[in-house]
């Protein structure tokens, strides 16, 4: 007889979500739903009618961990719609900003991941807040990496959280030679730290995978061999930056994308029948509670070629570097492997940057309502923004955000794992639920489906 | 009421550099200080009033070279929003140690930004030297144009220097002519916002300076806090400034105190007046 257990809210990720898990007698997940219960803010709706300059500044506020992605994808979509090519030096500054944000974001995610992990060779779980070694050194290194990322973001992007420098047509300003030198110094300082952090994390993640069993609360559970495996495909447009409909060879195709409503994807109404008061911290949902994923999920379900796909660090490495490690730890390890490139790419872009170069297009067309899109490789994966701009005003604006893509994929990846480890799989996706929560649902013919669900 | 603010010492001083003095407003304190601080690595740039689009219209700039600092010498008696580039100085210019000059209200803005950094992330810890200049009142660009062109009858393009002193507004031309008008003619052109200002000698700066109290070509200087004192002492030891005890110069602190008292008393009255400006209602008071 299967039972239903619910973890709500989930922790150590951005935003508000829950896990509704149907498990067998051994507590192994037969079918899992991971869903957003973050209130819909309706960014896409409220941007309609606003100017093309304003909309991306609004969508930046979707999320404060990866605002760079939404700012750049939003602006990129506007530029793609109006047909505006930006100058090379603006592109380089955006690249630097992109790398800086990825560096900070991955380091932040390490802090969220580590409490699940053990100090290799011991049964001690890692508490990033402990003043004791060897963890203290790691925590300090992570904070320095984040500081470097945020400082570089401030200089190249104007602001680390909600960058002010990017604008439709390029950037508001170039940086001074002194500022360029400062970024270079910071990148040089961060590179060995990033490599050390990458090596440390990979050792810790592999150690976890090879442990056999781990303790969650008071329960010792076995790690299954195919922990977090799924059969969905991958989607990525670039190892580092982006692709847009202005590209000579665009790496994403709007015709392959469809949306389904959560009603068609998630489980129906159920009653929680299994509870564990010892699940850290505060226990699971009380038995007898009604739960209804298909009605409660606050995201749409975007599909690529009719299937949910995985986006993020592993998807990028699979597409561009023949990476083949599967499972939740495979995804985690892929994320660590991206560390050095954040800094190498930043330094290459700096080398090419001309501080006296113009950073604003000579002409910024006002748009005729054509569809344009930009897919930004956010820290968590491909963030596609689609827009139609006419006479400088936004007519239509859609955000297909990484965690939105990952929700259904990750739900599939939960199957076969003990329910106590469901959050470990979920965290491997570095979820950003505020990012994921948006509300338009379109069907195969790209028509907006009536909103019977999301009130 | 503490009319001159807190300070550790006050002196009369002037720059020892003839090059600075050639175009500075008074003793060249601000310019020499920034040149010295830049050279010594105390600051890596300074926010000063550069040259704007129109003649005698200042524009805030982030100066990172001695040339840029030198070319912003002299008082422009109209508004220059120096704080507007504060954030930019640590962003696109990448400064770590910012020098900044400003009127008392601008130094207030700076200190408020440091204590309550609303929208000013990573700015407050990068302020290395705040130079305040005395200020009785300021004018809009249109006002200043009108005063100089209509009242003083001097074309802005031939204007070499303007000064307020001894109850008069002075305009000096490049070809040596001087014209002056009584200050009371300029009152209607003052910025209304200046009428609620309760600070004359930049009480919140590290070092503040102005002309009043010292002879022509010299400046009155208040060294206000540890940071100001450290830098000032080093600069004096390095021979950047010539100093005299403020007690030994005429008219000295007595006149500074008198003018400060006048400004603050007058503006406090204005604030009280605003409290009962309407019938059973008043205007806002930012100090409460
Ligand atoms: C609006 C105004 C009113 C003033 N009122 C008085 C007064 O009542 N009594 C008095 O003793 N002194 C007053 N001063 C100060 C005085 O005019 C000199 O600025 C001061 O003595 C510094 O002279 P200095 O030779 O040391 O500076 P300098 O070496 O000549 O440097 C002056 C510095 O001031 C900056 N500056 C110029 N114009 C402005 C502006 N509009 N806003 C902000 N910064 C500016 C310049 O960029 C430069 O860095 C006033 C100044 C201003 C701007
Ligand atoms: S009088 Fe006060 S408010 Fe007016 S410019 Fe001077 S310091 Fe600022």
UniProtKB/TrEMBL annotation, chain A:
Keywords: Iron, Magnesium, Metal-binding, Nickel, Oxidoreductase. Mg(2+) binds at residues 44, 399, 438. It is an enzyme of class 1 (oxidoreductase). Its EC number is 1.12.98.1. Pfam families: NiFeSe_Hases. Fe cation binds at residues 66, 435. GO terms for molecular function: coenzyme F420 hydrogenase activity; ferredoxin hydrogenase activity; flavin adenine dinucleotide binding; iron-sulfur cluster binding; nickel cation binding. It comes from the Archaea. The keyword Nucleotide-binding does not apply. Ni(2+) binds at residues 63, 66, 432. InterPro entries: Coenz_F420_hydrogenase_asu, Ni-dep_hyd_lsu, Ni-dep_hyd_lsu_Ni_BS. Its cofactor is Fe cation; Ni(2+). Belongs to the [NiFe]/[NiFeSe] hydrogenase large subunit family. This is Coenzyme F420 hydrogenase subunit alpha. It comes from Methanospirillum hungatei. The lineage of its organism: Archaea, Methanobacteriati, Methanobacteriota, Stenosarchaea group, Methanomicrobia. The gene is frhA.
TrEMBL record, chain B:
Residues 96-248 form the Coenzyme F420 hydrogenase/dehydrogenase beta subunit C-terminal domain. The keyword Metal-binding applies. GO terms for molecular function: coenzyme F420 hydrogenase activity; flavin adenine dinucleotide binding; iron-sulfur cluster binding; nickel cation binding; oxidoreductase activity, acting on CH or CH2 groups, with an iron-sulfur protein as acceptor. It is an enzyme of class 1 (oxidoreductase). InterPro entries: Co_F420_Hydgase/DH_bsu_N, FRHB/FDHB/HCAR-like, FrhB_archaea, FrhB_FdhB_C. Residues 11-87 form the Coenzyme F420 hydrogenase/dehydrogenase beta subunit N-terminal domain. It holds the Pfam family FrhB_FdhB_N. Coiled coil: none annotated. Its cofactor is FAD. Its EC number is 1.12.98.1. Keywords: Iron, Iron-sulfur, Metal-binding, Oxidoreductase. NCBIfam families: frhB (TIGR03289), PRK09325.1 (NF006807). This is Coenzyme F420 hydrogenase subunit beta. It comes from Methanospirillum hungatei JF-1 (strain ATCC 27890 / DSM 864 / NBRC 100397 / JF-1). The lineage of its organism: Archaea, Methanobacteriati, Methanobacteriota, Stenosarchaea group, Methanomicrobia.
